[in-house]
């Protein structure tokens, strides 16, 4: 492949397995520039993706002021360009690596393993990933580094397992002894029994199952984030300690960080539920920012104050604007009882609400704990004073990916998997989904949907189709939604389409009139949608649900024909006018059967509570 640039390409090699080093034209470069090499390794592992400078700067210089961190990033990129030429590309806002111009030993290890060149792959594995770069930056980089090292340990474990099995099949005793001798040396800190792992490439069934009807989609037994809580004891302890200090009169602010799918929202639900039980007199103001409400000034603050006592809100309405209203109410409440303020997806909040939250975070009143939740790569999107990257007022707590053993427990909890298959399946999911419980859950569900996993006579899941070197399914929520929607029952699909019209938050009192279904049918549809994690319980309380993500809602809208969408928009407007005419904002205008023991929402809450009970 020829470069489109007039500048000559530089052939370089980045060695990451063992002590990190960069070779250009056979000569070492940047030998003492550990942070520049760390930046290069991070970009190379994400190539060819274009990475935002606003995310790279705090990754490697988290303790520096924002302007200083950006300047350090510019200098590091300049050093890399000076050493590598056009291998390193950048614009004012982004930077990336041309993967075809640089050799990366860890990438060659993965390619050789994927195509079955096992001994060639093992030759690349010469040491710990990025050995010597521990502590070169800060917590964000160290967390990424720990995850990459765990992935390498898992892949090496699987590689040696395959080599041992191959030698056994050939009755090569010397080969078995050779590979077994490498297990303790190469698979450091890995407690799994490598030699007894069951290969995942042999399907139990011999034929692809016939296409299933819509009613046969099997929901997951429980939610992945609930199980993932088992792997986050330090996070729960940190939040509990901060809440205890606030209840004793302290003022606390915590930033909870974690990638999408790690279970931040469910961890918050568990923490808030526990806080209310431990301090029943306390007031909790909880809300989730929604992308669909970003252009509505003060919308998030209004949702937060829905949970405040009327006596605290009334005097505040006449003092100040929307920016300081939250602070005024917080001071009134915390002067009497402890106050817990929780904002999920804070980076999606409207500008007015962000300014109010920023003011509260800078100086929380005595007796107050403020918990903000965000994904690490979105922190630069906040616009309040002090931001989130380097705000000295915030205690930062990071959610880590699940460990390998926890993923095996997760897989067994989500679906009944054949005991012989479970360890190798869990290892594959952990390795290729980077320990992310949300992605693992989505992948497992899609493997069932697509017939890669089928149920045996005993009800457990077994392989129905042969799996390739890498999992042949995507973990993308939008793609999974597109493929799942046609398999839903007609009522569930109708309710899902109606829910997508107003926005990410779903006012359940409007759904019945929009689709003209009976209350029991709506409840059953909502439970089906919640079981598939298309909808989830809302922090706004009873009568509300939310889409699992904006990507899910957009996928539903994309599949609707324009006439259908317009008809639902008109139905939504009629339902709103009818409710306003009834004079009851919370009025539910469709009938619910009194004979039903539990509504869909109660069933959903029961499901979540039973999953969270695994912690006890």
Explain what you see.
This protein is of the alpha/beta class and 616 residues long. The protein has four domains: 12-104, Winged helix-like DNA-binding domain superfamily/Winged helix DNA-binding domain (Arc Repressor Mutant, subunit A); 214-226 and 402-475; 233-398, 3-Layer(aba) Sandwich (Rossmann fold); 480-615, Arc Repressor Mutant, subunit A. Helices cover 47% and strands 11% of the residues. Strands 9-10-11-8-12 form a five-stranded parallel β-sheet, sandwiched between helices. A four-stranded mixed β-sheet has the order 3-2-1-7. Helix 15 packs across helix 16 and helix 21 packs parallel to helix 24. The protein is globular and about 80 Å long. The N and C termini lie far apart (58 Å).
Keywords:
24 helices, disordered C terminus, Arc Repressor Mutant, subunit A, 17 strands, 4 domains, four-stranded mixed beta sheet, 616 residues, globular, Rossmann fold, alpha/beta, disordered N terminus, five-stranded parallel beta sheet
SSE arrangement:
Blueprint: E1 12-15, E2 21-24, E3 27-29, H1 34-46, E4 51-52, H2 53-60, H3 66-84, E5 88-90, E6 94-97, E7 102-104, H4 105-114, H5 118-124, H6 139-169, H7 173-186, H8 224-228, H9 233-247, E8 251-257, H10 264-278, E9 283-288, H11 299-305, H12 310-313, H13 322-334, E10 339-344, H14 351-362, E11 368-374, E12 395-398, H15 404-414, H16 422-432, H17 437-449, E13 453-455, E14 461-463, H18 477-484, H19 490-500, E15 505-507, H20 508-515, H21 519-531, E16 535-537, E17 544-547, H22 550-559, H23 562-582, H24 600-612
Parallel strand pairs: 1-7, 8-11, 8-12, 9-10, 10-11
Antiparallel strand pairs: 1-2, 2-3, 4-6, 5-6, 13-14, 15-17, 16-17
